[in-house]
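SEQUENCE-TO-STRUCTURE ENTRY
===========================

Subject: a protein chain together with a token-level encoding of how that chain folds.

Sequence line: the amino acid chain in single-letter code, read from start to end.

Question of interest: how does this chain fold, as expressed in backbone structure tokens?
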Amino acid sequence: MRFPEHTTESSENSNAAYGFSLIELLVVVAIILIIAAIAIPNLMRARIAANEAAAVETVRTITSASVIYDATYGNGYPPDLATLGGPGGLASCDQGLLIDNIIASPPNQKSGYIFAYAGLGAPDPKAPGCSKPGFEQYLVTAQPAVINQTGLRSFCADRPAVIHFDVSGLPPGSVAACDALPTVQ
């Protein structure tokens, strides 16, 4: 019977076959870091785009709810966001149940945006059964909670229900300032 001879060469080669060298591990880590550096900015841009699309849709929902409130209750446009929402139960001119309560109650924040609503112009005479009078005009704004992280642009709309945007991310101070901004296509 013959036994194989052990040499130092064969034992070194057998150890190398069982693991990775430090260089190989560093190359793999470097490749993973390069892929991450490419993917993370794209992920952030996609998240910002999704937040902006959600903000535009929420502004559209608020403007539609305001028109429905005016047509339904004859109280003018609602005085605030809380009037468009409500905790549940029967809809009334004090709780329209027309928008999500997350938006209707403070901090009025959803999908990385903060929403604001203001009734403008002279208050309409209070409709029977309503605790607050409505208004003849309104301004809805949506601004990123953190500019350049949750969104890049702010959005606004008023009575014609045309949605405008501002690349500064700051909400406009008036209806005229909102109407002067470019419109969302």
